Structures are given as C-alpha cells and as structure tokens.
Batch of 3 targets.
Target 1
Amino acid sequence: MEISTLAMYHCLAFVWYFFVAYSITHVRTEERPSEVFLYGGQWKYLTVLNLVLQAVFYGVSFLADVLRLIKKLRCAKCVISSRDLLFSVLAFPVSTFVSISFWTLYTYNRELVYPKSLDGVIPLWLNHAMHTAVLPFAVLEILATPHRYPAKKKGLILLGFVSFLYISWRFNSNTGLQAERQVNPPLQAKQSLHEC
C-alpha cells in the first residue's frame, strides 16, 4: 500500500479511536449505574484501556508514516520499531482478546459483562465501536502494514508483564474486590476465597 494511503488510514483510525475513547469517558455520570462504575471507575475495564491503547498505536503509526513521507528515515526507523513492538505485543492481542471474550461472555450470559442497566446509558453504536470494530481494525492493520515482530520470548514476556500489571491492579485491593463483587459475579468466588 502507498505510504500516503497508509498515512490517511492511520490518521482516520487515530481520530476514530480518539473519538470513541472521548465518547465513553464522557457518558453522563448521572445516568451511569453506580454498581458498574465503583472502584476504579471506567478505567478498570480492559475495553476502555484498549480504546486508549488503540488511539496511541494509530497515533504512532501515523507519525511513522508522516516521517517516511518527509524522508526523515533515521527518526522513522525508531518510530517504526516502536510501532511494530506496540502492535505485536499489545494492540493486536488486547483488541483480539477484548472482542472475542466480550462477545463470548455476552452470548453466554450478558449480565457477566454488559448488564441490561447499561443499555440506556451506552448507545448501541458505542458498544459495537468498543467491542466489535476493534477486531476488524486489527486484522486490517495486519493486511495493510508490514510489521517486524519481536522474538517470541521477548513478545510473550512483555505481554505477560503488562497482563500481570493489569490483573494486579484489578485484584489486589480488598476494597476493589468488594466493589468488583457487585459488578462481576465470577469474582465472587475470589472474594470468598480471600475472606477465608
């Protein structure tokens, strides 16, 4: 694909993710069900963090394309290697996980991931922008842009480290566990083990 076409695509994707992340963070607070946004607010959800991650990734991709267009190849190489690492270690795995796990759990029992009380708060288009559109964007990125992938060991270590940080942030606070119990029924088992 031409660099100018890629730059346009990456710019549009960046604007899209920025808009979606902005939209979800500005859902009116008086309409939010209090039990859903207890401890950690909306920032505890991997879906919201993924929107920010995708916006950052597409911003870096656009920067790399612009640097290639203006022939700043030395700077572009550094940005391209950062873009490739970000995509292969975080952007693609997280967006794939968010989309597949959300729709699998939603199909099994929607109350586990998206209670009916959110239907009146989060518009349908925003739900699909957060949970559906991320996967086609990631697949399109694989097809449109050649990436250099890190060694498997390095990639898995980095992904494991980031996953550990996210899980620790979600589960280590006793206050958070008590609040999470209200939001995510599967965490009730963890809470009862924690109380023993």
Target 2
Amino acid sequence: MCKGLAALPATCLKSAKDMKHRLGFLLQKSDSCDYSSSQSKKEKIPSSQRVSQEEVRKWADSLENLIHHDRGLAAFRAFLKSEYSEENIEFWVSCEDYKKTKSPAKLSPKARKIYDEFISVQATKEVNLDSCTREKTSHNVLEPTLSCFDEAQRKIFTLMEKDSYRRFLKSPYYLDLVSPPGASCGPEDCKRSHTRTLDCNSNVISQCA
C-alpha cells in the first residue's frame, strides 16, 4: 500500500527536485532557441510583397532591368554572394556611385579607392579584367574623370550578363519571386511550378544542411 512522499528517503526527494529543476531549465532553453531560430528565419526572408509580378518578369528581359531596380539589385547581389562572386556587382555599383560625384576634389580619392579595392593586382576584391583594360584604367586613375572606369565597368557588365545573370534566372533567388507560392495558374503551369518549387526547396535545404 502506497504511503506517499513522506515515506521516501530525503535523498530521493532531493534528487527528484533537482531533476525537475533541470528539466524545467532545458525546456525553457529549448523554447528560447526555437523562438530565436524562427525570428532569425523571418528576418532573413526577403519581403517581395511590394514588387509586382509584371516588374519581376521584366528582370528576365535584361540584366540592365534587373540591376536598375532596387529589389532586383538586392536579389542579384544575394545570389552572387551565395556563389562567392559578389565583387563584380560591387564594382559595378561603385562605378555608378562614382559617376555621380559632383565635387572635382573628391574624384581622385574615390577613384583611388575603387582602383585599390577592385582593379589593382593586390586588390582584396579583384575583378576579372583583361590586361589591356586593366592597364588603361590604371592610367586613367592618374588623372581621374567621371568616365575613367567606363570601359572596365562595361567589361564587367558583359561578363555578368553572359554568365552569372543567366544562372540567377534559373535560381531560387529569382524563381521564388516570379512564381510565389499560391499563385494562380493553369494545370500545365502548376505542374511545372510544382516541380520547380520542389527543386528550389531541395537547393535551400542543402544550403541549410
């Protein structure tokens, strides 16, 4: 016949209390981690509600349409970062910013900064330029003008257009925006969209693993 907790030795009661305390702490920690994880995932999910489907589809018409749209540029940069090749778009953006320089006194330091970061053979983010373009740009920087990086910028634009831009259009970074979950479609379109979504999910899962 059960005599209750009073019949148990004091050491057993203490062990039981210690175990209860540890379980409570672990459960509390687990809940906290789950919450932090879910919050982190929400923060990393790009918001695409303000970009119309018509606008997103225009990004597939040309690289120019893509990178001249703020959201398109952000998506393309994220894609290039995933491939560890973001130096190309960073150089292009730096050149665009440089051409907006209004003060002649600022041209030389800004030109030198771009040269040291992207064009010099010791650059931390060296872009892929042929020797002729590199040499010409190096000469231009000695007496910088607003157009001193134009040729190098065109070469990098063409490189992205023929290579990374095409891969971007086939990646989840673009496909998830042009065909968001729940979008209405016909039977054949839905079938293709479903297959593509499965492929995209597989890519995302493999990246997270």
Target 3
Amino acid sequence: MSDTDEMTINLLLVGRTQSGKSASGNSLLGSFDFDSHLSPSSVTTCCSLGCSCRISGFTRRNGHELALRVHVMDTPGYPHSSLSKEEVQQAMRAALAQHFGNEGLHLALLVLRADLPLCEEENHTIQLVQELLGPTWKNFTAILFTHADKVEEAGLNGDKYLNIASDTLLNLLSSIQQRYIFVDNQVNTIQEERKTILRKIMEFIRQNSYQVLLVK
C-alpha cells in the first residue's frame, strides 16, 4: 500500500517458453512493456518489471475507495532454449529481491496454454515455482490459462474445459484452491476485459488476506 487511497499489487509471471507469459503481462498492464512474438527460440532472456498507470476507483478496502497500480515481473521461460534451470532461478531470485524485496509478492501467475495438455515441461515449471517460493507457494499461486480463444473454438467454456481436464491438472488446481483465470492473448485486451481479469486477481489476493510473500 503506497498511500491511503492507492494500492499496488506485485505479480510474478512464470511459465514455459511460448506459453504467453509476456503477452499476458501486457494484457495485465494495458501496455506493450514486454516483447512478445512468435519465435523458434525463447524470446525472454532476462527478468523485467512493468508498471501500470493508476486505475482510479478500482477497488474498496475497509470501506474506502482505492485506486490500483499493477506491477508485473516477466521472467524467462523454463525450460529455456539457452538458459539452464539454475540460471533462470538465479535471475528470478535476484529480480524478486530487487523489485519486490521490501513490499513482497502478492501472487505468482503460473502461465499454462489452455490448448495444450499439461506435460512434463510444465511439471518442471511447477517444481521451479515450488523451489522459488518455498513451502507456502500454494497460497501465493494462481493459474493463468492463455489461448482461451482455442477453448471457445472447440465449443467449450471454462467449466466444460475443466470437466475433461486431466487428473494432474485438476489436482494442481485443487492444491491452489481453484485459483485460475482464462485469458485470450490473441486480441488486444479491451479495458473492460482487463478490469475483469484484474478483479479476479484482486479477489484471490483478498481471499489470502492481502498477505505478501518475501522471497529470500
């Protein structure tokens, strides 16, 4: 909380290469801070921080109206085409300490493609999140399903999609208390859709009593 009428939330994006992390970060920020394009190799090679403009009158807390600022940290995908797990993890720890070391992390968003099954590469990413955030990682993690347009093209909504999901995915969702959001990164997120996504994230943070995680 930066002052009496404004709240800042700190978010971390984690996911495999080409999962849509950077595009999701741009959707959350309402900008194009992060480089995002099709590539045969990993696009993101270092951690970077993006900060949104002030969103007035976005939420209420203790009866008071608050504006919102969103800080999003984009990270290299893992598995990565040129960086080892240790290099990715070290870069993430250093960036978290630099940018969120004092205020803490509100939520890590595990970015998964909705149009691809959960496989071994995602398991590596989940293990990375566990090691990075520590034993309470489940309280500070939500899933961001990208490529939601592919789900709609298949004639599915969120509920139908999860009804046919693998036990591995369902168990993961259960472990993080069903915190998930579907995002379509193929179109520019309009302002109202962006606010809907951010309201869901704020609800996750509220359910966790506005706690933050200090990553050491």
